[in-house]
Amino acid sequence: MKPLYLLCMVFGSVVFAQTITFKGCYNIFDNQTYTFNKTGVDSYGKNIYITTPIDGQSCSGLGTCEFKLQWNNTLTRWEFLADEGYGTFTAPSLVYYNSTGNNTAPNPPSNTVGTWVENTAFTQQGGGCGGNLTAANSTMTGDVHTTTLAISEAIKRKIRIFPNPVSDFVTISGIDNGRLIQIYNISGQLVLSEIFEEKIHVSQLSSGMYVLKIITKDSNTYEFKFVKK
C-alpha cells in the first residue's frame, strides 16, 4: 500500500481538522470504526475526506480498507468510495451514494439525512452490506450535516451583507453562530476561506461578481452574491 499524506487547510494560525467516523457494512468491512480526515476542498467548494491508512485494516478478504467521501458534481451526489488497494483511489469502487440529502452543504450528510444507497453491483460480491445505511445498521458522526438544512426565506431575510457593491469590507449581520466564510468567483473557484468574522476584508479581490458562502457551526449554509468594485 502506498503512503497517503493527509493535508489540512490552514487559515492564518488556525488549523481546521474535520473528521468523520463511520462504522457499518459489517459483512464486508468488519466490525470496526473508520476515521475520515478532511484532506481538501474540490473546485465546487465541497470537502473531501479520506480514511487514514492502517496496515491490517482488513475488509473480509478484499484487501486493506481505505475509503473516501467526496462530491460527484456530474451526478450531483455524495459518494462513499473504496480504494482499489493501493491507496491512490485511481480506480475506486462505489459503495454508497446519497443524492437526496442537502446538496448545497460543503460536507456530506449523515446516515439519517437523505438516503445512502447501497451499490449492490459492488457489495454483493462480498456478501452485501445489508441494505441502505440507516441509524440501525451504521454510525456516521462528526463533520456531517444532520438536518435537511431547508432554509426559509424568512430566516434568510434576517441575514444581510453590506455594502453591495463593495470596495474594502463586507459586513455580515444576522449570524450568531458562524464558523467559516468562503468566497467563490464566477467560475466557481474558491478565492478566500477564513474563520467567520462579521467584517471581511475583500480589497485584494479583483473587480467582478462573487458568491459569499457562510457556514455555521451546525453546518447550515447561506449564500449571497456581491459585486467587488
From TrEMBL:
Q: Please list which residues make up the signal peptide.
A: 1-17
Keywords for the protein's UniProt record, in alphabetical order: Signal
Secretion system C-terminal sorting domain sequence ranges: 161-222
This chain belongs to which protein, by name? Answer: Secreted protein (Por secretion system target)
Residue ranges spanning the membrane: these are none
Q: Which organism is it from?
A: Chryseobacterium daecheongense
Say yes or no: keyword Signal present: yes
Database matches in InterPro entries: Secre_tail
Task: Identify the Pfam families for this entry.
Answer: Por_Secre_tail (PF18962)
Q: Give the domain of life.
A: Bacteria
